[in-house]
Amino acid sequence: MGSHVSKQVERRKSIRTEKKVLFIMKQSNGSEYPGSDYHPSDRKNWMSGLNPDKVQINQIVWPGTHDSATNKIGFPFVSRPFAQCQSLSIYKQLVTGARVLDIRVQEDRRVCHGILVTYSVDIVIEDVKKFLSETHSEIIILEIRTEFGHDDPPDFDKYLEDKLGEYLIQQDDQVFGKKISELLPKRVICVWKPRKSPQPKAGGLLWNSGHLKDNWIDTDLPSTKFESNMKHLGEQQPVTSRKFFYRVENTVTPQADNPILCVKPVTDRIRPYARVFISQCISRSIVDRLQIFSTDFIDGDFVDACAGLTKARAEGKA
Length: 318
Prior knowledge:
Blueprint: H1 2-29, H2 46-49, E1 62-65, H3 90-96, E2 100-105, E3 110-113, E4 116-120, H4 121-134, E5 140-146, H5 156-164, H6 180-183, E6 188-193, E7 212-214, H7 222-234, E8 245-249, H8 263-267, H9 274-283, E9 292-295, H10 300-314
Parallel strand pairs: 1-2, 1-9, 2-5, 5-6, 7-8, 8-9
Antiparallel strand pairs: 3-4
Helix pairs in contact: 3-4
């Protein structure tokens, strides 16, 4: 019992120390960078506001959401706090400015997070199509994967092509160097990541797992995650040299050996430091590698941070 208490004391001390590291970094180095003062007048159409004729796909800093379809997962006040990573519906996330969605499914096509389940993926598709019908130049990366420990939904590739076919951007490495306007009226890059079923084939309507990569680590320590993100991002090629999307997640994860298991208070240890991360990318000369930047509980300021750097890139200022 005594050793367990001692371990918890040390854990809490480590968390306090790491939170302080990020706070001091922000106070000492700031969170400004080219484009950081930009705030889109209409986040629902922020890509359109940057002029689709001038912005290339590989210039975009894509604001994404982690575990996107968990706003209604589990039971309210019971299991939901342990798995909910977003409070907004998929549609409202897109309206807020999110442009990358992370969807986990199980065999019956319901969205899940571990053992907890929520609504059918049909709801996700409906929300995406509603948003697309109300906008004209916004491009979405829709990543759908079979959750760990679950089986692939049968014929899911055909389901996605049937539901989204008119919007799907064909898998093609040339897409990365094209301008937004050159892809229209197609609007969705759909990455399907099955566990056992065959991967989408080159040239098809769906993109395979090799086109969206990341280096996720399982930790609730904010400075540890911040520096891991920096390290792995620095190991990537610049976006102009890559033929895949690379994601950085500005999140931390509750740990079973810690008293605080709810997602919100844990991920809030790092969530306020998104702009600091971008600023540090500038300082460490790796901002040319930043591409997809994801968060829990997305808000307008996170979107503005990404849109501002996108604007600066398009104008040759970053």
